Structure formats: structure tokens, C-alpha cells
Amino acid sequence: MIEIKTSRLLLRSWRDADLDPWAEMNADPEVRAHLGPLLSREQAAASIRYFQEGIERDGYSFWAVEVLETGEFIGMAGLDAVDEEAPVDGVEIGWRLARSAWGHGYATEAAIALLDYGFEQLGLPEILSITTIDNVRSQAVMRRLGMEPLTEFDEDGVRQVVFRKAR
């Protein structure tokens, strides 16, 4: 199993115990504010299966994120193929954390480790990140990672921005 450790976090495979906090996160309107509709428990479970299958098949997807010191599950972070609706192709970095984990630098810490994994282990030439034009918090993380805006596009009437970091 592929795991990625940072000084404070463990990015790991998904466990059955992750479903309840993951479903709760995805039923939180603030967490989902820039991600689309809330997810049902069944949709949350399906997303876990999709992420875990990607890790096993490709060596990457979205890993569960836990705090090393406490073992607390706080969300997900990872790499995945860019959605077909986007005007760019490639691999995207992303994260989604519970509100209780916001403001601690966890997204940036996980993303730095993921950039290293993507460039060094997977040999990716570039890594993209996509969010809504209004999601300034995620854009701030992207800028801290050294990513730069590449392009914008509309998806389902919502303006999106693509950031890019070359190897």
C-alpha cells in the first residue's frame, strides 16, 4: 500500500471507519460550497470506492488524510486525472478537509508532499489544480505551492480557474 507521510499528516488508503466522517464532511454546505451539491451517504461511499480503486490500479488517486499525532481522519488529498469537461488534460492535485481542519496548514502540507510524489515518483511533467473563481482559500494554497494561473473556463455556468506547476 502506498502511504505518504509528512511531519504532521499521513495520506493513506481508505478504511471502513472513514465513511462516517467522510459522509458528514460531504453533507456540510460550507465544505461543499465550491464543489457542487451535497453528497448522500451512498455517494460518499461510492467516492471512497472510486478513490481506493484508483490508488490500487494507478498508484495514485485521493488518499484519506489523518493527523499523525491523533490518528484523526480530517479529509482527503491526492492526484487524479482532470475531468473531461475541463479544457486541459493532465493530472490534477486536490484536497478536501473537514472544517475543523481548516486554517492549520494541512492542505498546503499534504499538497507539497503530493507534488513531490507526482514529480519524483510518477514522473509527471506538470500538475494542474482547478477550482471555482470564487474559491480564494484554495487559490491561496495553489499560490503557496508555486502554482500559477493558466486559464479559465465555464462549467455548468460556474467560472473555473486552472492553476499549473511544471516539474
Q: Care to describe what's here?
A:
The protein is of the alpha+beta class and 167 residues long. The chain has a single domain, classed as 3-Layer(aba) Sandwich (Aminopeptidase). It has helices spanning 19-26, 41-58, 106-121, 136-144; strands at 4-5, 9-12, 62-67, 73-81, 91-97, 126-132, 148-155, 158-166. It has a five-stranded antiparallel β-sheet, with helices on both faces. β3 and β4 form a beta hairpin. α1 (19-26) packs across α2 (41-58). The longest helix has 18 residues, at 41-58. The model has no long low-confidence stretch (mean pLDDT 96). One of its GO terms (molecular function) is acyltransferase activity. Residues 9-167 form the N-acetyltransferase domain. It comes from Hamadaea flava.
Q: What keyword list fits this structure?
A:
167 residues, alpha+beta, Aminopeptidase, 5-stranded antiparallel β-sheet, 3-stranded antiparallel β-sheet, 4 helices, 8 strands, 31% helix, acyltransferase, Acyl_CoA_acyltransferase, transferase, N-acetyltransferase
The CATH homology group name:
Gcn5-related N-acetyltransferase (GNAT)
Helix content: 25-40%
Strand content: 25-35%
Q: What's the overall average pLDDT, rounded?
A: 96
Q: What is the CA-CA span between the terminal residues?
A: 25 Å
Q: Quickly name the level 1 CATH class.
A: Alpha Beta
Count all strands and give the number. Answer: 8
Total DSSP helices = 4
Outline the low-pLDDT stretches. Answer: none
- Tell me the series of helices and strands, N- to C-terminal: EEHHEEEHEHEE
Q: Just name the CATH architecture.
A: 3-Layer(aba) Sandwich
Q: What integer value in Å does the Rg equal? A: 15 Å
* Class from helix and strand fractions: alpha+beta
Shape: globular
Number of domains: 1
The CATH topology name reads: Aminopeptidase
The major beta sheet can be summarized as: 5 strands, antiparallel
